[in-house]
Amino acid sequence: MPVSMVPVEFSICRTPSRLSNRATPPPPETVSCSSLLELHVSVSDMKECLYVLDGRFDQLRIFYLIVYRILSGYFNIEHKYKLLPNLRFFSLCCKEKIHDFDESIVPLLRRMLNLKELDLNLVAESHEKFIDGDTLQKDIIYMPQLHKFTFNICSTINHRNFSLNEHIQKMYKYFANNQIVTCIDHFQEKAYSQYHIYSYRCKLKVYIDITNNFPAGLFTSVTKVSLYDERPFEHEFFLRIAESFPFMKELTIENRKA
């Protein structure tokens, strides 16, 4: 059978308020193809996507996934250990906060033995520590075939007292300082801290929860921006935002002291 070179794209959403304007295809559990090379999927729940990774698309090389939520309970034994040796490129964007990075994302990536390019865009709630350089090295960078890793990862913990320099140093152990941006914020009123790390090569389209600690830069691909802080925004801050996002089309501000 000839190998299909045409990318396939579909979206599935069970929630009526988020229905796609594209024609909705059959549920993924009813679809199979042994010759598909590239797939673009948009789903409301990770459960609907696990069928794509159960072996029915065994020749899949390129996989783009946009998912609204990811719950670790959906990753059963079969889905945790079935390998995906032919996958070479994987892009994951999760819209909602992930509550168990170690039990959901990490097992999924470990199945991709020969992955060459990886792109992650997600927010994770951590229990004891941030997702930092040590985490990325242990769970991702070690992958033997991986030669390009772009990421935009924001992690939060319910602690406010820890060493800022320790987390930053862990990032620079594995990345040159001209390759990544790190930003950390402590929110006293809500009693949590947030650690944001991203690579310069990451082509962000949305940049959320920017605070007064925003390190600036030039983001030509970003069109949607949101600002959040417990401290008031000053005039100079908005000038920095305008310079950093020249193609911004939508701006949301959450700050009762602004």
What would you note in describing this structure?
- By secondary structure, the chain is an alpha/beta fold.
- The longest helix is centred in the middle third of the chain and has 10 residues.
- The termini are far apart.
- It folds into 2 domains: 195 residues; 55 residues, no CATH class.
- It has an 8-stranded mixed β-sheet, with helices on one face. Strands 9-10-11 form a 3-stranded parallel β-sheet, with no helix packed on it.
- It contains 5 helices and 11 strands, in the order E-E-E-H-E-H-E-H-E-H-E-E-E-E-H-E.
- Strand 7 and strand 8 form a beta hairpin.
- The protein is globular.
What characteristics describe this protein?
258 residues, alpha/beta, 2 domains, eight-stranded mixed sheet, three-stranded parallel sheet, 11 strands, 17% helix, globular, disordered N terminus
Q: What is the element layout, followed by pairings?
A:
Layout: E1 8-12, E2 38-45, E3 62-69, H1 77-81, E4 89-94, H2 101-110, E5 117-125, H3 133-141, E6 148-157, H4 164-172, E7 180-187, E8 192-199, E9 206-210, E10 224-228, H5 235-244, E11 250-254
Parallel strand pairs: 1-2, 2-3, 3-4, 4-5, 5-6, 9-10, 10-11
Antiparallel strand pairs: 6-8, 7-8
